[in-house]
Amino acid sequence: MTSDQDRPAQLDDAEHLKVLGYDDTFNRSMSLWANFALGFTYLSPLVGVYSLFALALSVGGPPSIWWIFIVGAGQLLVSLVFGEVVSQFPIHGGIYPWARRLWGRRYAWMAAWIYIWAMIVTITAVSEYGSGFAASLLGFEPTPTTTLLLTLALLVIALLINFSGTKWLARVARIGLAAELVGVIGVGLYLLIFQRKQEFGVFFDSMGVEGDGSYGTAFFGAALAGLFLFYGFEACGDVAEEVAQPARRIPLAMIMTILVGGVSALFSFSGYVLAAPNLQEIVSGEVGDPIPGILEATLGGVGAKIFLVVAVTAFLSCVLSLQAAASRLLFSFGRDGMLPASRWLSKVSPNTKVPNNALIVACSIPALIAVLVWLNPDLLVAVTSFAVLGIYVAFQLVVLGALRQRIRGWKPAGPFSLGRLGFVVNALALAYGVFAMFLLAAPGDSNNVFTDWIVLIGLGVVALIGLAYLFAARPDKLSDAPEGDAIAVADEIRRRTRSTTRR
């Protein structure tokens, strides 16, 4: 019998994957720094702040910045739960295999179905937003046709980089990380130190956004300012089989993504607010896209042009990371036989060791959606409205699955562990998630039924189609991959390592 001293402190990557039922077929060329860069460029505080700055100020005024703290703290709890899960299950695909091993096949199929469509729509939306920066940089008139062509260009360039392999993905992600840090922290600090036009007390001044009503209503209405920012950290786990020592490194990369992303967003958001010479006009909604004006007034024409280069780089890197994460989820789905054309989706290039076919899908469907948006520009709002809520729903399905397993006696066996705090953190993460979903799903007050309920309508359509396919085609019956085995896997890992004590 093997003594405790003869057992390793933790399993090596290949053996850990073998315990989970898979072979080690990818190149593990992604470092901790590269994995963090992937999650950070997906989270992309530059994209989030730029996209929602005007909306946040017009709805909640300068105090809307406090949502960055609130949501950052809540999503940090979620990332800690994810950290324990991925530390035990460092498998490609993230949300899907985690939900499967924590609950079951049909549960995981629905979680992944909602998540993959939210990701695909997000790829389209980020590419569309990025095309505006690219048009400004290149001096093109932002017509619908120009927007379509530049959107497709961003998608194809990201696809070609992803085709080249994990090393190039990691390199460009690191470049994108540098661009993000310059664009959000660097510019934010410059604005705070040298271009401040407002006092810090403005972050406690609603500037009249509540009108004759309660400011509480206005503040909760601005919650999207934070909710849109703090997802993307889960992408660190989507590429788990391409990371060296993923059970240790990915949880750390997730936490770093939340913390650095939050600090970056704070510097950026506060910098733009305090440097705005016409803040009251922005809060009043008179300026639809205020950031270019702020940059032009503070950085000058040349400085604003340099910022555009940084911004386009950040957007390209964000699309790249989104494509990579979506393709690994599709690969994981296909490897378990859970989708049509599963064998085709699960093929890995023998040269670059990336799932090329899954990457093609992760590029082509967003491209088709972009064409539909070109035909009907109003469609973008409708198809993207459920994206953030869909991602939060998928997150909370994993958090709920983890809490269910803990109640049944699961003690996570990966090298990243919260110990006795795990149950409390898990419960708090679920409570936060329910609160966040309530805020995202709350109907508007425009008196237009479609507009007010579009978030739930979008999510409902995706969920109903997914349920119809699930019960008609029964993809769960086509797969014999492991499910609901969190406790058994934890016991097996402990049997093979020195961590035999059940915490």
UniProtKB/TrEMBL annotation:
Any GO molecular function: transmembrane transporter activity
Entry-linked Pfam families: AA_permease_2
Compartments where found: Membrane
Superkingdom per UniProt: Bacteria
Membrane protein topology class: Multi-pass membrane protein
Residues spanning the membrane: 36-59, 65-86, 107-126, 146-163, 175-193, 213-231, 252-275, 306-333, 354-375, 381-403, 423-441, 453-472
Alphabetized UniProt keyword annotations: Membrane, Transmembrane, Transmembrane helix, Transport
A cellular component term, taken from the record's GO annotations: membrane
InterPro entries in the cross-refs: AA/rel_permease1 (IPR002293)
PANTHER family: AMINO-ACID PERMEASE BAT1 (PTHR45649), OS04G0435100 PROTEIN (PTHR45649:SF26)
Protein name, per record: Amino acid permease
